[in-house]
What does this fold into?
Amino acid sequence: RNFKSRTACRNDINRLIAPFLAIYESLIPPEEEKGKQKQLMKLLEKLVSKEWPEARLYLYGSCANSFGVSKSDVDVCMAFEDPDVNKPEVLLKLAEILESDNLQNVQALTRARVPIVKLMDPATGISCDICINNVLAVVNTKLLRDYAKIDVRLRQLVFIVKHWAKSRGVNETYQGTLSSYAYVLMCIHFLQQRQPAILPCLQGMERTYAVTVDDIECAYFDQVDELSGFGSRNRESIAQLVWAFFNYWAYCHDYTNNVISIRTGSIISKRAKDWTRRVGNDRHLICIEDPFETSHDLGRVVDRNSIGVLREEFERAAEIMQNDPNPCVTLFEPY
Ligand code: CTP
Ligand code: MG
It folds into this structure.
């Protein structure tokens, strides 16, 4: 079913600009949410510094990468200089401290793939996950946020795609579908590939920002204010882009051979990455390279069954964008 690429988009596509922008705007968090997040961070910093004065707290994930919709959970990373800090021990102690300060639903998940403490702050109503020494996530959060500053169509597209994925039940890594982070990478890749490009490849440019985390060099051009007009030669509307995004994943992507890579700003081959066969639980049925941890395929959670579910959903969305009289409703119908 690959390559039966649709060439012509419906001719009334721009009729959908206003309704898509309305959906985007309804999802933007109100200013007061930022204030509440800051208030919670202050409280956490106070509690943490008493026990671990050397630890630092960073926000990451959707509350810091600018792709968070209203009422998202807050992701916090607690960073220690010591890379070998005993995570379960710290998390159990942290849970104890949080409980005695009356934070609610406190739970230490010490055996998860990414061990965390969960909590709910009754003063702000915010739910929060705290992990330890996941500094790569803090750095990739900055990369995503910097991409979002270059062209507003990225943030619009991500909000619409995330809203679609949540409505359709394909944003559940434990069920073999994709994380929000994976969808953001898919959107960045897609806008890098438009002709003319709407986004540059920041990791392919002069390095103005560089850090080394867990032996991985993370470097890219982060002076994005200088790039604010980058995408303006491309005049595609958000409606055309949503159409083309689903058309790409439904009919144009070569799932058998290709890896999408925002690091290189292009497609690379599975063969070049040795991602052609199953190794352990990594099946590589849809390949999305992490920009810094390049051995990490964000599609590794996808299995034989869920790849079918995902591709059917992309095809459904493409079909709706092409033919449905009311895509802004049908697209987001609960599954
Ligand atoms: N992350 C990562 N590697 C993954 C998954 C996530 O590094 N395989 C990091 C990224 O920094 C990402 C953050 O964890 O921004 C949170 O991931 P996720 O929950 O998928 O995305 P959010 O942006 O927080 O989306 P949501 O609004 O759905 O919570
Ligand atoms: Mg999150």
Remarks:
- The pocket of cytidine-5'-triphosphate (ligand 1) is lined by residues 60-62, 65, 67-68, 72-73, 75, 136-137, 140-141, 179-181, 298 (CB under 6 Å).
